[in-house]
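Exercise: predict the structure of this protein bound to magnesium ion.
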Amino acid sequence: MTRLLKILEYGLSSLARRKFKNFSIIAIYSFTIAALASILLLTHSLKEIAVNVLADGPDIVVQRLTGGRHDLIPANYTQGIEQLAGVGRVTPRIWGYYYDSLYQTNYTMLGVQQDMPQLEMVEGRMVVADGECTVGQGVATAQNAEIGNELLLINSAGIGSTCEITGMFKARSNLWTNDLILFTKDDLQRFFATPAGLATDITVEVFNPKEIPVVAQKIRQLFPDTRPVTINEILHTYESVFNWRSGMMLTIFASSLIAFSILAWDKATGISGEEKQEIGILKAIGWDTGDILALKFSEGSVISVTAFLLGIFFAYIHVFLLGAPLLVPVLKGWSVLFPPLHLVPYVNMYQIFTLGFLTIVPYMASTVIPSWKSAITDPESIMRG
Amino acid sequence: MPLIIKTEHVSKYYNRHKPDEVRALDDVSLTIAQGEALVLNGASGSGKTTLLSLIGCMARPTSGSVSIQDKEVSKLPERFLTDIRRQTFGFIFQQLNLIRNISVMENIQLPLYPSAIPMREMNRRAIEILTRLNILNKARMKVSALSGGEQQRVAIARALINQPQIIIADEPTAHLDSSLAAELLEILSELNRGGKTVVIATHDPYVSRHRLIDRIIRMRDGRIIGGSEP
Ligand SMILES: Nc1ncnc2c1ncn2[C@@H]1O[C@H](COP(=O)(O)OP(=O)(O)OP(=O)(O)O)[C@@H](O)[C@H]1O
Ligand SMILES: [Mg+2]
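Solution:
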């Protein structure tokens, strides 16, 4: 035990002795890790967010198609749908997007209804009466608004209207709740000038998730002008988007990994004459191969673990605190899908471990193997210098 | 006096069966008694270093056998040879082989790192030896900042730290002026009086004629061509 501890101590002091070299290795190494980890953290987090949002959503959304385009749907279709077996609550929704030209932001507007996911209030209360509205945190921040303030909105006909902010809810997944504004249905119907008796779409609750496709099929038969979109289909769409993106990401990931391996390989083949001589000297004066391996192992693990943890730390800050500014240009497509405000820090430990494995192991191998090779040869050459 | 080193019909070839084959040692049989001080003498290329490296368990003979303290070592696995090197030998190399960018203290303690000897004891021994060699004031300095003679003394200190039975020195006076050479031989004499076996390869007549030396072995072309009292 003392033996190992002393060797570790010597390892640390030899690291300190090659400060400049080791510092540059740690810098390059942790930068690589930070780049790879940023990609992993970002993709994983976006995926989690999407899945969470959808999990809160309705089982089926029924849209009406006119000429292949999304159109308003008669609210009384609900009656027909409610008759179907296994169907729970059926709700017509009024919702839409609103572009605030003053602040240059997009909001989602939704009429309150019973089957909404529970929203956690930060302050105040939910909207109950016409002329009132409740906003997500993002909206409040963007408008610099407080409870009791009047929110000014201008509809597509150019007519302005105001609503009083009654409360603010927590942006749970940050994605759609962050930029959401809630109104009474009537208010919103007036604002969007939606004709009476029509809705944007209809949401359907299905008791047994297994029956969702069957119910969707029946709705289609009942109302041939509709397109019921199931949660699974939406998930699929997201999945395929993510898979396509993941594929691209994987390419970047792989190429970084290759670059990293080249670096490691370079180091492996480039064990310096000085290092070789040192190993020879140590062997000659009584260090055995195991002692030398322990030495190189301790040096290698200090470097790679430090670099790895630093890299993960930088990646976390980059992605979750700064909003991945260095990756966003690469991910243009995404910024349309997800106006990234602040990403929720979802971390997949499995991915992090994989990354650790894929980088620490090759690095360790590249430091330990050449040292081992030079340690197993007889130290005879040391006698001749 | 009991035998401490014995070589029997030892030969060493380099690049065996190749056009550039070298027979560095040819059928060398030699016995060295415990406490003896012995010089290997011979022209450059005669095989002195090769013989020292076989005796010192740094290399293995192509044929023949080497025994240290009655133990046949030429067939032992590497691991055991390392242990023997650490426990039995102190080496002073022809090229000093110090690690230049670490301190004197660390250099001389290196042979004790792979052992159970606690750090406190290591420090005690190092200070004792450095005091004896009169370089304690350089203990914290890097080897690269020392003069040649000082480096030589660091190399000697490193050879002594593990309290070896046998001291092997290859051309130890090569880089020393005459007063430093005298000092070195004094140190070796003192160790020899304390019972250590000393084997020196040299062609420096000053060493061969020193009163420390009990026996001179003459070598040529990898063979022993004679031995004599100095
Ligand atoms: N690794 C090697 N490969 C090939 N030949 C070698 C090798 N090592 C030594 N030799 C040869 O073996 C012979 C003996 O070398 P050795 O170093 O033992 O001589 P030496 O007596 O110590 O000489 P010097 O006084 O110059 O140190 C020389 O001819 C040398 O060239
Ligand atoms: Mg020699």
